[in-house]
Write a structure and sequence with these properties.
118 residues; alpha/beta; three-stranded parallel β-sheet; 12% strand
Length: 118
């Protein structure tokens, strides 16, 4: 099957699921790309991982966010405890989750499950 034929077949398979065409947005584009990379109409993911990057970078101090910067570290702690919607999604689909400190103005405990600078 040529790349063009595979692209057409994958798009047909995605579009003919029980859903409005294009309603899954980016997820549909990723499914198409994954099928093309793996050269199959039924792509598989092995050992998937979700990375959640947490940062405030001082933007809350500039009034850009309606929430104070304390919310950022509190949410990161909630992610690490498994209490957020993304944690439920990852558990349901057997996806490993990593929380990355990408600039949170907080000193997390040394034994936290946080990746990145401590």
């Amino acid at each position: 099957m040529t790349k063009e034929e595979l692209t057409h077949a994958l798009q047909h398979k995605i579009d003919n699921k029980t859903k409005p065409t294009g309603s899954l947005g980016q997820l549909e584009r990723i499914a198409l790309q994954l099928g093309l990379i793996q050269q199959t109409l039924s792509p598989q993911m092995e050992n998937p991982a979700m990375f959640v990057f947490a940062a405030d970078h001082g933007l809350a101090d500039e009034g850009i966010s309606p929430y104070p910067k304390e919310v950022t570290w509190q949410m990161a702690m909630n992610f690490m405890k498994g209490g957020a919607a993304i944690n439920v999604f990852c558990r349901q689909h057997d996806i490993q989750i990593k929380i990355v400190d990408a600039g949170v103005d907080f000193d997390f405990p040394e034994d936290s499950l946080l990746s990145g600078p401590k």
